[in-house]
Design goal:
single chain; 448 residues; mainly alpha; Amino acid/polyamine transporter I; 0% strand
């Protein structure tokens, strides 16, 4: 190992560190047996689990809680099950694209389709990321208020923690720290068993009697779009592909990357269902509700499940915001670096990589300050951001599909017909729901 490291000494530090990581993987491949294979899988997973857990961000947690409190579980638990293949199909494409090209998503669009579309996708991403980061700080500040911490202190502390993780860790440690924080996202699963009078028979019947509570309405379309926006979002495409590249995955690692992405999709959906169930059984009153304020939801959880359960929920909310802010700000930095040809790796030392780190860190500061503005309608803002993510998503997916069907780029790893069919079906559904939402904006009473 030392012999190889000496040969790498002349390389730039970020490339050298990535090469050292790849060398470790190469040496692990030389070992045989189930245990060695498991160790190799553990070494290769990360981007898929991290992007999916980060997708259950603070905005997502609030959205799922709002969904359960307004509509109960009848429609949205089966709906969340359907989100597993949707999320996996979309994100798996970024694994193949990153492993084959060794280029990030922004760089591929910029070089393949030119400056105009490069700027279009970059502006789309940066605007969506800043808006999404605002929801992360909403979750962090509201969650920390449960523990008696003022919004100013929690917002500033979050900025310092995220900045330190981005600046002072190399990629492998950055990923390990992020995954360690992400583990706390699973706290919502045991919380389900704190729910009083939980009826698993009602959960089972939701699949047999799948229906839309109260029929199609403007509110229902709005909430469906919000749930779509928190399941698949533009930042996820940019993040996972760039993460695959920075981690150094190759064509040989595609299968492990697919396993990684499936595991992440599975945990994402299980956590989402748990949150919908918690709110559905505690807040929903058996008829369409109007509760969209997360503070009210937390109060009801405290009254019906106890203060300890409420604090666990608040802790999960803080974790969700923190890990997502780390991932989303990194996706901004990667995309800007790829677009403008700057050095682009979390392996870069702070001074050498300041161009790379600065865009992501500035977006965090902006988001952290916005949530401190008095009288901002946080519940409405959160749902609106998720809806905007679903509106931006069809364009982002079209670029992804064009790249995945470009044989000159992908070779034998181009999309199969079933992958194109399902991807276009997802895009079509998003466009239809966006169109229906547009109609409800113009004609508010169209659905009664």
């Amino acid at each position: 190992m030392e012999e190889y490291k000496e040969k790498l000494d002349g390389l730039p530090v970020d490339i050298k560190l990535r090469a050292v990581d790849r060398l470790k993987i190469h040496l692990m491949r030389q070992k045989y047996g189930y245990f060695s294979r498991l160790c190799l899988l553990v070494a290769l997973i990360g981007p898929g689990i991290l992007v999916m857990i980060a997708d259950n961000d603070a905005g997502g947690v609030i959205t799922y809680a709002q969904t359960g409190s307004i509509f109960g579980i009848g429609f949205f638990i089966p709906f969340m099950i359907l989100m597993l293949p949707v999320a996996f199909i979309v994100q798996e494409m970024t694994v193949r694209l990153g492993a084959v090209t060794h280029r990030g998503h922004a760089e591929m669009i910029w070089k393949r389709y030119g400056r105009f579309w490069g700027f279009f996708s970059l502006i789309d991403l940066v605007v969506a990321n800043i808006l999404t980061l605002i929801t992360e700080f909403i979750g962090i500040t509201i969650g920390m208020e449960i523990f008696g911490v003022s919004p100013i202190i929690s917002s500033v502390a979050a900025i310092i923690v995220i900045t330190s993780i981005q600046l002072f860790t190399r990629y492998s440690y950055w990923e390990w720290i992020s995954l360690s924080i992400a583990v706390f996202n699973l706290v919502f699963i045991p919380l389900v068993f704190f729910v009083p009078r939980l009826h698993w028979g009602v959960v089972a019947r939701s699949f047999a009697t799948w229906h839309i509570p109260g029929g199609v309405s403007s509110l229902f379309i709005y909430v469906v779009l919000a749930n779509l926006g928190t399941t698949i979002a533009p930042w996820m495409l940019f993040f996972q592909q760039s993460s695959v590249v920075d981690k150094g995955l190759t064509v040989k690692d595609i299968r492990d990357g697919q396993v990684d992405t499936f595991l992440g999709s599975f945990f994402m959906v299980v956590v989402a269902i748990a949150i919908v169930m918690i709110a559905g059984f505690t807040v929903y009153r058996g008829h369409l509700g109007t509760t969209i304020d997360i503070q009210n939801i937390l109060s009801v959880i405290s009254a019906k499940m106890g203060g300890f359960a409420m604090k666990l929920f608040a802790l999960g909310l803080v974790e969700a915001g923190l890990v997502a802010a780390i991932a989303i700000s990194a996706s901004t930095s990667w995309a800007m670096g790829e677009a403008f040809g700057w050095p682009k790796s979390i392996n870069l030392p702070p001074l050498k990589g300041m161009h790379f780190y600065l865009p992501g860190l500035l977006s965090i500061v902006v988001a952290g300050l916005v949530v401190l503005i008095p009288h901002v309608p946080l519940g409405f803002l959160n749902l609106t951001v998720q809806v905007l993510a679903s509106i931006f998503m069809p364009a982002a997916m079209l670029f992804l599909l064009m790249l995945l069907n470009d044989r000159e780029i992908m070779g034998n790893h181009v999309n199969r017909p079933w992958q194109n069919i399902t991807s276009f079906a997802i895009i079509g559904f998003l466009i239809i729901m966006n169109g229906l939402y547009g109609l409800t904006v113009i004609f508010p009473h169209i659905f009664g």
